[in-house]
Amino acid sequence: AGLTINTNGTVTVAANTPAGSYNLEYTICEINNPGNCDTATSTIVVTAATLVANLDSVPATLSSNTPKTLINVFDNDTKNGAALIPSEVKLTVTTADPKGYLTVDTNGNAILGANAPAGTYELTYQICELLNPTNCSSNQVKVTITAPSIDAVADNLGSINGNAGGTTTVSLIAGDTVNGTQAVIGTNPGEVKLTVTTPIPAGLTINTNGTVTVGANTPAGSYNLEYTICEINNPGNCDTATSTIVVTAATLVANLDSVPSTLSSNTPKTLINVFDNDTKNGAALIPSDVKLTVTTADPKGYLTVDGNGNAILGANAPAGTYELTYEICELLNPTNCSSNQVKVTITAPSIDAVADNLGSINGNAGGTTTVSLIADDTVNGSQAVIGTNAGEVKLTVTTPIPAGLTINTNGTVTVGANTPAGSYNLEYTICEINNPGNCDTATSTIVVTAATLVANLDSVPSTLSSNTPNTLINVFENDTKNGAALIPSEVKLTVTTA
Q1: Is residue 421 classed exposed, middle or buried when 0-12, 13-18 and 19+ CB atoms within 10 A define those classes?
Q2: Up-side HSE of residue 367: CA atoms within 13 Å toward CB?
Q3: CB 441 within 8 A of CB 386
Q4: Which CATH class is domain 51-146?
Q5: How would residue 150 be classed by pLDDT, with cut points 50, 70 and 90?
Q6: CATH for 150-248, options being 3.40.50.970, 2.60.40.10, 3.30.1490.20, 3.40.430.10
Q7: Of 110, 160, 220, 455, which one is least surrounded by beta carbons within 10 A?
Q8: 124 to each of 73, 75, 96, how far by Cα in Å?
């Protein structure tokens, strides 16, 4: 089949005739003598097509996360020097890619599997004529896969308050790319592995998504994190960058402590606690989180702040304004401080000198009043006490003291013997020892009474007269002064009716 004997004895071989050596036995006979014949066998060789499978060398390329068609192996193969018609051959992979990523399908497409690591891949294929199955040619498909560009970019991760702690919204790999596309942390081909290459500072945690968590009570500071990203597909394809996270200190506010006007006391007096209106991060301050220091003491020495924050006014502080400056510093961040003042105005207590009636004293005998000049006097509503100590008063008589009267240190009045009778006014002033200008004045009265004189009836018994003067009695003998025998020298005797 496929051969035709032409009338002139030539032989025509039809297209697509299988190759082979064909024998043609034929006979020739004379026309004139048809019986005069002879037979011979001639041979014609039908050759197969010239198949050429050419080398397929694919330019260096990147892999993809999906299978990628590189070339068609038939495109540069020939049959009889012309472009190969794929339907005329059978394609077979005779030596597969040992890495398994490079394949050739039945249509001749050379396909690179998804996420092929960087490297060289090759296989050998063969094409055989369908017409002549033993007429074959083979060659290779070769491709070099390059690692994609990988770029770790230094980022500013923002700031986190180290007192409260928190997590960054920005990841270490926020600006990082693989082949120009955002890098993704994971374990799948095409993703990257994140490794922090410097020791991670205490208080910081690197999360699996590349964000950074700052633990509560982490010291303030600018923390550098050097990290490396490496391709999962190509573990040696890496890049390194250093990103920064700023841990901020707490916001400390020491507020002004202005104490309302108050009175001092004879014992130390706690006014306020300076911590009560101070804040940390906008919330009430926890005193144990800070160190308290008085940076400018009260120059008068009365106002102090103790280690617990209590503002204390010393005993018997005079009226006036007192102030000091204090500072609070974080224990976590000793340079994170805030300061303010404590101010208090001490007012002088009310002082009231009250006029008293000191009673009466017999001026002949003399004596001391039981009532003091300051009996009803008060300091801040309490009984005034004469003395030299803070909280006590000084007594001063502001008018000349009448003769015969003595003002005692306790405010009582002594009337000397033989002081003329009369109503004596004593103007006096009391002033606070603490506040010498805080005074009040009053006028109290003492009555000095005269002696009680009694001239008793002198009734003389019947007697005889005499030719000489006759002394009958002494009239003083039954007279009294203050109930006692009269001393004649203390009186003047006058006959009022002769």
Answers
A1: middle
A2: 18
A3: no
A4: mainly beta
A5: very high
A6: 2.60.40.10
A7: 455
A8: 11, 16, 7
